[in-house]
Amino acid sequence: MKTNVQEFIEHHGVKGMKWGVRRSSRARKKGTERTKYSKSPKSLTQDELEKRIKRMGMEKEYNKLNKRDVSTGERLASEMMTSIGKTTIVTVGTGAAIYGAKKIIEKKSPDLARAAAFRKK
Questions:
Q1: What DSSP state is assigned to residue 117?
Q2: Inter-CA distances, 86 with 27, 83, 118, Å
Q3: Are 56 and 35 in contact (CB under 8 A)?
Q4: CA dihedral defined by 94, 97, 99, 104, rounded to 10 degrees?
């Protein structure tokens, strides 16, 4: 059986892209980023400064008008993850502080550490 080369289809995808790896959200949201300027405002003329202020105000208004509505479930999940994160940080921090205090006491006063261990049992 002879294969016709004219009917062969190839797809190369994005050059350098790995299988199963998506582009970052930053690359997808390129159009909504704020304009960045390299010159400092002190070195600008009055006209250039007015143009920049107008442009930044327009971008702010555009982003305000195109704000994404967050669903109730997404908001709830975000609040829950924030709460869990805060609780975890407090718990780990407290444990680390207790562990550190215990090690300092053991190093500075071994008799006090033994007495505390004996009292605990």
A1: H
A2: 30, 5, 34
A3: yes
A4: -160
Q: Is the dihedral of CA 53, 59, 60, 62 positive or negative?
A: positive
- Hey, what are 38's tokens? 């390299």
With 0-12 CB in 10 A as exposed, 13-18 as middle and 19+ as buried, what is 100?
Answer: exposed
pLDDT in tens, 71-121: 888 889 999 999 999 999 999 999 999 999 888 888 888 777 777 776 665
What pTM did the predictor assign?
0.37
Distances from the Cα of 58 to the Cαs of 31, 34, 51, 65, 76, in angstroms?
A: 14, 11, 11, 11, 32
Scored b (16 or more CB within 10 A) or e, 63-95 reads: eeeeeeeeeeeeeeeeeeeeeeeeeeeeeeeee
| Distance between CA atoms of residues 73 and 91, nearest Å | 27
> Residue 43: what pLDDT?
86
User: What number of residues does the chain have?
Assistant: 121
